[in-house]
C-alpha cells in the first residue's frame, strides 16, 4: 500500500477496536440477561477492549523520516559492511599514488599516501588527512 499513512492506519485500528468493544458490550449484556448468578459462582468477565490514543506528533515525524530515508540508510549499511570487509585487503606495494592513477583523491591525500605507503586499507584509513570516503571508491573497484 504505497500511499498508506500512519494517520490512516490509526483510524482503521481505532474503528476496529471500537467495533470490538461494542461487540464485547453486547455479548456481556446477553450473557448477564441469560444467566442466573448465585453467590458461590462468579462469572468470568472478558478483558475490556481499549481504544488506543492517537500517536504523538513526534511518532509521525519519526515514521515519515524512516520511510523517506530507508533507501539511503540501507545503502549506507551495505557500504559500511563493504568497508569493514575490505579493511584487511592489501594494497599492492607497487601502486602509483598520483592524480593520473587515482583521479578522485586530493593532492594532499596522494602526498600522504606516497609518504606512508600503507599496506592495507585499514592502515590507509588511519592516516590523518586521508578521508575514508576517498578510499572507499577504490575498495569497491
TrEMBL record:
Origin superkingdom:
Eukaryota
- In residue numbers, the region (Disordered) covers 1-40
Gene3D superfamilies, alphabetized: GidA associated domain, C-terminal subdomain
For bias type Basic and acidic residues, the affected ranges are 1-33
Where does the tRNA uridine 5-carboxymethylaminomethyl modification enzyme C-terminal subdomain domain lie? 67-140
Q: Which GO terms describe its molecular function?
A: flavin adenine dinucleotide binding
GO biological process per UniProt: tRNA methylation; tRNA wobble uridine modification
The record's annotation in Pfam families points to:
SAM_GIDA_C
What name does the UniProt record give this protein?
Answer: Uridine 5-carboxymethylaminomethyl modification enzyme MnmG
Amino acid at each position: 500500500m504505497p500511499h498508506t499513512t500512519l494517520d490512516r492506519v490509526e483510524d482503521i485500528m481505532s474503528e476496529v477496536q471500537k467495533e470490538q468493544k461494542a461487540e464485547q458490550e453486547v455479548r456481556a449484556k446477553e450473557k448477564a440477561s441469560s444467566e442466573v448468578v448465585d453467590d458461590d459462582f462468579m462469572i468470568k468477565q472478558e478483558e475490556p477492549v481499549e481504544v488506543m490514543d492517537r500517536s504523538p506528533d513526534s511518532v509521525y515525524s519519526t515514521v515519515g523520516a524512516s520511510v523517506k530515508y530507508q533507501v539511503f540508510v540501507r545503502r549506507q549499511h551495505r557500504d559500511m559492511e563493504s568497508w569493514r570487509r575490505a579493511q584487511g585487503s592489501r594494497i599492492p606495494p607497487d601502486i602509483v599514488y598520483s592524480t593520473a592513477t587515482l583521479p578522485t583523491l586530493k593532492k594532499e591525500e596522494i602526498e600522504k599516501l606516497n609518504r606512508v605507503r600503507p599496506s592495507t586499507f585499514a592502515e590507509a584509513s588511519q592516516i590523518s588527512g586521508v578521508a575514508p570516503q576517498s578510499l572507499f571508491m577504490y575498495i569497491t573497484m
